[in-house]
Prior knowledge:
By secondary structure, the protein is α/β, with parallel strands linked by helices. The protein has one domain (about 5-130): Rossmann fold (3-Layer(aba) Sandwich). Helix content is about 50%, strand content about 10%. It has 6 helices and 5 strands; from the N terminus they run βααβααβααββ. The chain has helices at about 10-15, 20-25, 40-50, 55-70, 75-90, 100-110; strands at about 5, 35-40, 70, 115, 130. Strands 3-2-1-4-5 form a 5-stranded parallel β-sheet, with helices on both faces. The radius of gyration is 15 Å and the shape is globular. About 30% of the residues are buried.
Amino acid sequence: MEIRYLLDTNVASFVIKGNSTAVDRRLVRVPMAQLAISAVTEGELRFGAARLPHATRLHNMIEDFFLRVAILPWDSDAAQQYGQLRAALEREGQRLGNLDTMIGAHALALSAILVTNDRAFGRIKGLKVEDWTKGSRP
Length: 138
């Protein structure tokens, strides 16, 4: 089965912490083989954990999440998408953080749906986005 959904950092955080019933309801309907995160998201999650060195329970929850979800390397295909995407955004006067641009480019390279509740990703033309925090959708 191929990767269909790439989870953005904010949705991955909801999954890890279990603090969104809407995300949880949607998650149980999707085979784990169709879910992944970018290595960029892994880095963001690890950074967040490193900022809270004494949060042992959170560290354990993050590591457990990493055992259950595919972590995809940020590769040359993603880099090619990133170069084109960043140049296009700058030409249009649109700014997006570099890490978000990298995650968006990774989703484009994979032809995956980016699962996020960050509306800034709407600036990326051709990116398929779903917001699982808004309740149930098929």
